[in-house]
């Protein structure tokens, strides 16, 4: 299907664009009253994730209501461990909780490598429904968590300030850690390949807990597996967003992916220099900047656009949009990107 707006994909591939494309991590939901209306009619977050028609509806809402240049399928990175046999709960105000965690080799052996259609068919069906409903208006992003981030949740059982249990295993039981990472990676590759088959135009890999590892451990227990995932997806562009992994920019230059996401703590010029000319950068406005007044949002957005320059940039936040952000402030950010980046190219 011919895309009516392909700015996002062209920028990802490093092609010239008439303006900078823009979307937001966590744009599907959270800030929109229309999302909350759908969410409040259901039992919980997981019911929304697992109901393809409704997941598709909230995926498309930001395209209609905010004017973003790409849709990202409404789902969660923790559907992967659940598909492998480790169920999670999403608790209000607390986030994800795993009632049972991985602690022993036997626990790892009992996990299965998931079959995408059988175990994650609801996500694939949501992608197919969304693809039809978008009808080529904008590209559709599929995603998964990086193996290290999934591993961290499976060992720890929830979010953590230190992930000390997960990190302890890397020192004390490295072979066991690799066995679990291998199973997660195999599942993730099959899952993402199935997402592409279902209609995803680009895949984003989220390594949310990259920044808590020392560089050597990151190369061994995260980067190596992300590289494998990128190599397994030759048919679509891939974005890697590794929050806090500023120490790995030179390594990321060698990843077989097209886009590197920067969080708001990363220096744009340093990242450009480390990554070289062949990577598109995505990001990286501080999500808290959207709490400011319109004049400040415009000023900060323009400063960001000037730092990235007109080429090989996808505008985004440096992490997901926060749930109490005013949607009009998000629109101010999006509209500033569109208007100013178009002017940049004409100047």
Question: Describe it for me?
Answer:
There is one protein chain. The chain has about 350 residues and is α/β, with parallel strands linked by helices. It has a single domain (about 5-345), classed as TIM Barrel (Alpha-Beta Barrel). Helix content is about 50%, strand content about 10%. It has 16 helices and 9 strands. It has helices at about 5-10, 35-40, 45-50, 50-65, 80-85, 105-110, 115-120, 120-135, 145-155, 165-170, 175-200, 215-230, 250, 270-275, 295-310, 325-345, and strands at about 70, 90, 95, 140-145, 200-205, 240, 260, 280-285, 315. The protein has a 7-stranded parallel beta sheet. The protein has a two-stranded antiparallel ribbon with strand order 2-3. The protein is globular and about 60 Å long.
Strand and helix layout:
Layout lengths: L6 H6 L20 H8 L4 H5 L2 H14 L5 E2 L6 H5 L5 E3 L3 E3 L7 H6 L5 H4 L1 H14 L5 E6 L1 H10 L7 H9 L1 H25 L3 E6 L7 H17 L6 E5 L6 H4 L6 E3 L6 H8 L4 E6 L8 H15 L4 E5 L9 H20 L1
Parallel strand pairs: 1-4, 4-5, 5-6, 6-7, 7-8, 8-9
Antiparallel strand pairs: 2-3
Helix pairs in contact: 4-8, 9-10, 9-11, 10-11, 11-12, 15-16
């Amino acid at each position: 299907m011919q895309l009516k707006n392909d700015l996002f994909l062209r920028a990802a591939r490093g092609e010239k664009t008439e303006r900078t494309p823009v979307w937001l991590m966590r744009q599907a939901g959270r800030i929109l009253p229309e999302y909350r209306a759908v969410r409040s009619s259901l039992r919980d977050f997981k019911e929304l994730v697992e109901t393809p028609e409704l997941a598709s509806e909230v995926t498309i809402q930001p395209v209609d209501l905010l004017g973003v240049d790409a849709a990202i399928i409404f789902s969660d990175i923790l559907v992967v461990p659940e598909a492998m046999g480790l169920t999670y709960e999403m608790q209000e105000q607390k986030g994800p909780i795993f009632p049972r965690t991985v602690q022993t080799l036997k626990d790892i052996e009992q996990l299965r490598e998931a079959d995408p259609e059988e175990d994650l068919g609801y996500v694939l069906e949501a992608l197919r429904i969304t693809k039809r409903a978008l009808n080529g208006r904008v590209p559709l992003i599929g995603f998964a968590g990086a193996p290290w981030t999934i591993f961290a949740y499976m060992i720890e059982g929830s979010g953590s300030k230190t992930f000390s249990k997960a990190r302890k295993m890397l020192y004390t039981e490295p072979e066991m850690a690799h066995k679990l990472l291998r199973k997660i990676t195999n599942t993730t590759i099959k899952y993402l390949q199935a997402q592409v088959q279902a209609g995803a135009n680009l895949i984003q890999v989220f390594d949310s807990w990259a920044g808590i590892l020392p560089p050597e451990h990151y190369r061994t227990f995260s980067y190596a597996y992300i590289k494998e995932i990128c190599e397994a997806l030759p048919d679509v562009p891939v974005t890697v967003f590794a929050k806090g992994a500023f120490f790995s920019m030179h390594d990321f230059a060698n990843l077989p992916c097209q886009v590197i996401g920067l969080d708001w703590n990363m220096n744009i010029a340093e990242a450009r220099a480390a990554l070289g000319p062949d990577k598109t950068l995505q990001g990286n406005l501080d999500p808290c900047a959207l709490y400011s007044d319109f004049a400040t949002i415009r000023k900060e957005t323009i400063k960001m656009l000037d730092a990235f320059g007109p080429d090989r940039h996808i505008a985004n936040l440096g992490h997901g949009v926060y749930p109490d952000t005013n949607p009009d402030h998000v629109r101010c950010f999006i509209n500033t990107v569109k208007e100013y980046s178009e002017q940049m190219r004409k100047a």
